[in-house]
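During data preparation, a discrete fold description was generated, and the record follows.
___
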Amino acid sequence: MNNIIYLCITGLSLFLLGMRLLTIGLKHLISKQLKARLKGLNINPFIGLLIGIITTMFLQSSSSATIIMVGLVEAGVLSIYQVTPMIMGANIGTTITAQLIAFRIGTIAPILLLSGLICTIIKTKNKKLFLFGETMMGLGLLFIGINLLGEGLQPLQHIIPLQRIMIEVGDRPFLGILMGFSTAAIIQSSSTGVALLQSMTVSKSITVSAAIPILLGLNIGTCVTTLIASINLSRAGKKAAIIHLIFNTLGAVIIYPFLQPLNKIAIIIAPFNLARQLAHSHTLFNVATTIVLLPIFPLIVKCVNFIIKDTPYSFKK
């Protein structure tokens, strides 16, 4: 039992540290350039969606990407209309983390760690090299943490009370959504929650079908970070945060009736890889909800503008 606790705590700590370094490094590498290039740019919804996907792919955190987007609205760089598709794209971009973890490329983690360390200790005036090294170290620690976490969770599949809880969650998807929401709200990271779920599915502590509702909850729970970040912002910033919450909640509502078909599709795509099944499920439902909601996002924006009134609604292009 002590070994389980040690491996889980060590693995989770390294994962969180890696995610932190990765996020900080990439945020500093691209955020200033992103703001400079976006200002005054004519952004249509599809370009906005693509920007959201790419930004979150680099940051490896939908929360960080969305907070940056909220900041762009707050700074007057972008309008609510322009930033909403970006927020939708952020949900797709964050699924790359799960896909990377599913590849189980932890064997290259020491190489990433060493490369990053070398970049950070080289004495140079090039700050980007240091940030790149920090990013590589973060990625290396992330994969090492995931490997340790997987080893630590392996014995949990034999714990009877945990099995009963997971069976209950599998039978009642709504409980899974609540569990996912609570987890993401507490740890302030849906990516970490997804990584934990993948480790649990690989160790057979939970089935993929029981894990999918938790994924939906994680998607909603990650909005808490953005909402907290918007507390001291103007109404424009608050609008962007609320749109994030509405989009993720509507996404869960849309996908909820199709949980079993989603699970079956994931099994067909990756029949022998549990981690990849979960990663595909994560990607599929985020892509599906974006396809459904992107055409009606102006209506969502209009509703939010009606709820939080400050300036007249406009389709800024």
